[in-house]
Specification:
128 residues, alpha/beta, 41% helix
């Protein structure tokens, strides 16, 4: 479903899916519905179903507002980039090239991501 990044439209689309007889797993490629100020109230009636895993809602990104709704039990999981690791790795690769003329050994590098659930919502983005 395409929402043009509109928070109201995105939440309407999610609610439309939840109101079907057999709701599918909802995977959001952006957190637009979770950024909507009405998200928590709108999803309140589905909280028990989400906690029972009868409804699964997974959203991209791990911003504070998203982790807040996740910790309140109205989402199943959030998966987000790890900017700390992206910066650390790119700095290391540049450092090795500039100081030692050592080129990266791979054409692509994949960094870890933040995987957040209700149980770790307060700590899942901490970089140790």
């Amino acid at each position: 479903m395409f929402s043009l990044g509109k928070r109201e439209k995105s939440l309407e689309q999610l609610m439309s899916l939840l109101n079907t007889d057999n709701p599918p797993i909802f995977l959001a490629v952006a957190g637009f519905a979770q950024f909507n100020p009405h998200y928590v109230n709108a999803l309140g009636p589905y909280k028990q179903m989400i906690e029972n895993k009868d409804i699964i809602i997974v959203s991209a990104d791990t911003e504070e507002i998203q982790l807040n709704v996740l910790s309140r039990g109205v989402s199943s999981a959030n998966i987000g980039q790890n900017p700390f690791e992206m910066g650390r790795l790119s700095t290391k690769l540049m450092h090795d090239y500039i100081l030692y003329n050592k080129k990266p050994t791979q054409s692509h590098y994949y960094t870890d991501f933040h995987y957040c659930t209700k149980n770790n919502a307060l700590t899942c983005t901490i970089n140790y």
